[in-house]
Design goal:
By secondary structure, the chain is an alpha/beta fold. It is built from ten helices and ten strands. A five-stranded mixed sheet has the order 2-1-3-10-4. The protein has a five-stranded mixed sheet with strand order 7-6-8-5-9. β1, α2 and β2 form a beta-alpha-beta unit. α9 runs antiparallel to α10. It is globular and about 60 Å long.
């Protein structure tokens, strides 16, 4: 065997040893969140914070109407967290076995949504939706939380058929309701109040909160899914969302009144002091 062959074999053995000792790159983990459209902005905000706190983790958000998202996760059985527009999704579908623990992070509340300045000088009375002089846009009751909650409101005061006959058109979700008002397709709609205080909307929309006796506020809950691929990360995200950092974000996006926010922070502080 020539000295050149011996040198080549030695070089190859050394190269093999270097390859074996090279540390492997860490695999990026992806946390998947199904979020209702109305709440996606605070979730996007918190996702950036979470990614900074957890290097190597990427948060992927699938947004859509709450009902559509539930049907999707029910079929695909993929994802870590579900964030619908009302806690009724959890109470209604708990029996299906897809939900584990949950965290409260705010409220959704209904409002009559009108163009900025309320040019028709409407009040907070939902019976105005029967007025044929008004162009009305609503979400379909089959498409998501907003449509179903509006139907519950109308059923309560027994004006559902009258209002539905007066609707200019039905749409699918809160985003499209906002677009309808902005584009002048409607004089009034019913949507989640939070959509009217977002920076991109507040210059064009006004929200008239409906009486809570008619339209009780709905709890917003992040729910960990039973088939979560990363349950520990899902729990960590829920803890962030329910912390003061998270509550600050939800308050800024209109999911707490000032009084509710202050009360929640007080409760959180007292709980933390009581912990050993």
């Amino acid at each position: 065997m020539s000295k050149y062959t011996i040198l080549l074999i030695g070089w190859l053995i050394g190269l093999s040893g270097c390859e074996q000792n090279t540390p492997s790159q860490p695999t990026e983990k992806t946390l998947v969140i199904y979020s209702g459209i109305t709440m996606v902005r605070p979730i996007q905000h918190l996702a950036k914070t979470f990614e900074r706190q957890h290097p190597g983790v990427r948060v992927r958000i699938k947004q859509g109407a709450s009902g559509f998202l539930y049907n999707t996760l029910k079929v695909e059985k993929k994802g870590d967290l579900y964030f619908p527009g009302s806690d009724t999704y959890r109470t209604t579908h708990q029996k299906d076995g897809f939900f584990k623990n949950h965290a409260f992070v705010g409220y959704n509340r209904l409002a009559l949504v009108v163009p900025k300045g309320n040019p028709k000088q409407l009040s907070d009375d939902p019976k105005q939706l029967t007025d044929p002089a008004l162009s009305v846009v609503l979400a379909s009751p089959e498409s998501g939380a907003i449509g179903r909650n509006v139907k519950t409101l109308l059923d309560k005061i027994d004006i559902t058929e009258q209002v539905y006959r007066n609707v200019t058109y039905f749409t699918t979700d809160s985003h499209r309701i906002t677009t309808a008002i902005k584009q002048g397709h409607a004089d009034v709609a019913v949507n989640w109040y939070a959509t009217t205080v977002w920076p991109k909307n507040r210059q064009q929309l006004s929200g008239l909160l409906l009486p809570e006796s008619l339209a009780p506020k709905k709890k917003l809950e992040l729910i960990r899914l039973s088939f979560a691929k990363h349950p520990e990360l899902a729990n960590a995200f829920m803890q962030l969302a329910a912390s003061q950092t998270g509550l600050d974000v939800f308050y800024r996006y209109g999911f707490f009144t000032q009084a509710e926010y202050q009360a929640r922070i007080k409760t959180l502080t007292q709980t933390q002091k009581a912990e050993p």
